[in-house]
C-alpha cells in the first residue's frame, strides 16, 4: 500500500506554443522575468500551505472537513456496521474520530518538507506549473514530496495512535468485532491506511488554494501574484 500515492499526473501545456515561446524568452530583470515567475509560483505554493494545509492540523481539521475526512477502509466498513448492529454505535464513532485525530497530528510534520521542495523549485518547474493546468502546482508538490512525506507521516501516525488513544480504541473495536459469531476476522494495517489518506487530504487542500489563485483575482493577494498569474490568464 505504500506505493498507493505513486503519481502518474503529467504537466500539460495545452498546446500554447506561442505563449510558451513568450515565457521562454522573458528577460531576467525587466518586466515579468524568470525571477518573477519563480517567485510568484513559490508564493502561490506557500499560500496553499499556510492558508489551507495548516487548517488540517487543528482539532477536527480532518474530522469536520467533509472534503478530506478519513472514512473507514473497505474491509472495516463491515466492522462499523457490525458494531452498530449490536448497539455499539458510540464505539464505532470513536474509532473513526481517532483515525482523523492521528492524521491531524501528523500533518504538523509536513511544513519543513514542503518548504524544501518549494525552495528547490527551478525556473523550468515554475514555467511548467504556470502554463499547465489548474492543479499543476499541486502536482509538482506531489511529485516532489510524496515519498518524503510518507516516510515522515508514517511513524508520526503510529506514535499518534498511542497519543490519541487510537491503538486502544481500535484494539477494543477489532476484538469486539472478531468476537461476534460467524464474522470473518479482520486485522487491517491502519497506520499505512491513515498515512495515505492524510497525504491525500494535504494535497487536496493545496489544490483548493491553487485553484483559487488561478481563477479568482481577489485571491492574488500580492503584486507579484497578480503580475505572474496575469501571464497565465493570457492563454485562457
Give the key terms.
236 residues, mainly alpha, 10 helices, disordered N terminus
Topology:
Layout: H1 17-24, H2 34-52, H3 74-85, H4 89-107, H5 111-119, H6 123-130, H7 136-163, H8 166-178, H9 190-215, H10 223-233
What do these coordinates show?
The protein is an all-alpha fold and 236 residues long. The chain has ten helices and no strands. The longest helix has 28 residues, at 136-163. The chain is elongated and about 70 Å long. The model is unreliable at 1-30 (pLDDT under 50).
Helical content class: 55-70%
Main sheet specs:
none
Order of helices and strands: HHHHHHHHHH
Strand content: under 5%
- Determine the mean pLDDT: 78
What's the short story on this structure?
Helix content is 65%, strand content 0%.
Amino acid at each position: 500500500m505504500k506505493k498507493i500515492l505513486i503519481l502518474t499526473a503529467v504537466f500539460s501545456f495545452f498546446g500554447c506554443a506561442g505563449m510558451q515561446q513568450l515565457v521562454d524568452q522573458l528577460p531576467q530583470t525587466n518586466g515579468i522575468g524568470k525571477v518573477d515567475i519563480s517567485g510568484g509560483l513559490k508564493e502561490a505554493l506557500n499560500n496553499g500551505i499556510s492558508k489551507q494545509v495548516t487548517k488540517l492540523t487543528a482539532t477536527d481539521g480532518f474530522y469536520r472537513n467533509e472534503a478530506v475526512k478519513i472514512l473507514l477502509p473497505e474491509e472495516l466498513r463491515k466492522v462499523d456496521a457490525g458494531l452498530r448492529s449490536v448497539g455499539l454505535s458510540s464505539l464505532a464513532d470513536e474509532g473513526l474520530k481517532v483515525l482523523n485525530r492521528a492524521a491531524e497530528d501528523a500533518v504538523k510534520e509536513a511544513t519543513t518538507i514542503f518548504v524544501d521542495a518549494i525552495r528547490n523549485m527551478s525556473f523550468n518547474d515554475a514555467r511548467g506549473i504556470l502554463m499547465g493546468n489548474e492543479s499543476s502546482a499541486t502536482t509538482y508538490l506531489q511529485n516532489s514530496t510524496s515519498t518524503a512525506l510518507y516516510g515522515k507521516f508514517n511513524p508520526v501516525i503510529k506514535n499518534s495512535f498511542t497519543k490519541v488513544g487510537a491503538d486502544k480504541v481500535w484494539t477494543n473495536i477489532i476484538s469486539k468485532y472478531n468476537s461476534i459469531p460467524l464474522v470473518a476476522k479482520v486485522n487491517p494495517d491502519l497506520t499505512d491506511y491513515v498515512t495515505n489518506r492524510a497525504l491525500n487530504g494535504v494535497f487536496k487542500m493545496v489544490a483548493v488554494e491553487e485553484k483559487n489563485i488561478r481563477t479568482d483575482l481577489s485571491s492574488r493577494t500580492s503584486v507579484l501574484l497578480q503580475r505572474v498569474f496575469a501571464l497565465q490568464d493570457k492563454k485562457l
